[in-house]
Model the fold of this input.
Amino acid sequence: MSELFDEVDEEVRREQFKKLWDKYSIYFIALMVLIVAAVGGWRGYQYFEAKKAAEAGAAFEKAVELSEQGKHAEAETAFADLATKAPSGYRTLARLRAAAEAASRDPKAAAKLYDDLAADRSVGGEWQDLARIRAAGLLVDSASYADMLQRLEASAAPKSTFRHTARELLALSAWRNNDTTAARKWLDAIAEDGETPPGLRSRAEALAALLPPVAKS
Done:
């Protein structure tokens, strides 16, 4: 008797499942199709991005070779082209290299390219900071100390990644603009920072020796 009931229950369950399948099978099939399409799309996207990165890497290497061969105008064009087409990582590197190539023909134009990069928040803080340093390095001989201070004061703060270079540029700019007080301020900051690189420390000491002695009160 129990076996008969089990068979009846099984038949009832099959009938219920068939009704559910007839009612909802289209949705289940559609869901499966969507899942397969999504997985396929993601795989395709990954392949496409990997392909773009490989192509960008090859193009970047060719641009570097042009630079090493002294073909700076061609290298600048190649890097500028990459900066508009390459994936984000290569795009930022290409913008930096394009500015570096431009520096050989027009330092002010190169500084403008670096300034544009420094103003672009999408590239990340350290890249922006590096661009500021590069621009300031090109302008240190011509810019006013006030301009250099505006550019580099934040970069010269304690714990800033490029603080050592920023302080040296500020000290040099102050010295060139006859602001001995500001020059001493940045030279002292260099001297007091235990992480200052030895070479930079030596240059700072040499610059400090060129300053007039502090007047005694």
Summary: The chain has a mean pLDDT of 84. Residues 167 and 202 are 14 Å apart (CA to CA). The chain is about 80% helix and 0% strand.
